[in-house]
Amino acid sequence: MKPTISDNLINYYADMLVQTEYGLTWTQIAKFFRKKSAEYKVSVPYVNTIFPSHLPNRRIGFIQNLRVFSPQQQVLLLMELCEGNKNTSVVSLKKFLIPGAPRVD
Question: Could you tell me the CA-to-CA distances from 4 to 16, 40, 88 in Å, in that order?
């Protein structure tokens, strides 16, 4: 069975990384996923720095972009985003990505 990251965990990370005071801007999200799509040779739906008018918010675009990567790649991407974040509570989120750590389910 292929490992997956739970929807609850993805949603929790999206809330913390995008919807907080120090959350990522749409431009940062688009540039990050544009770079990672080239690195991993994955087609990502939202890489234009102009926010897509049909999306209700940045969080949804972030989740849809993240979901196209494999679970292993998702973990690496989330860890990278946590490390580069100014919010100390976001940096501490890495523990949920480590095997055996408590899950947000």
Answer: 20, 18, 26
Cα distances (angstroms) measured from residue 12 to each of 9, 16, 26, 39, 62:
5, 6, 18, 25, 12
Q: How far apart are CA 75 and CA 94, in angstroms?
A: 9
pLDDT tens-place string over residues 57-90:
999 999 999 999 999 899 899 988 888 677 767 7
Q: Are 37 and 47 in contact (CB under 8 A)?
A: yes
Cα dist. 99→22, 57, 66, 89, 94 in Å? 27, 31, 19, 19, 11
Neighbours of 61 (CB within 10 A): 24
The three-class DSSP label of residue 24 is coil
Q: pTM to 2 decimals?
A: 0.83
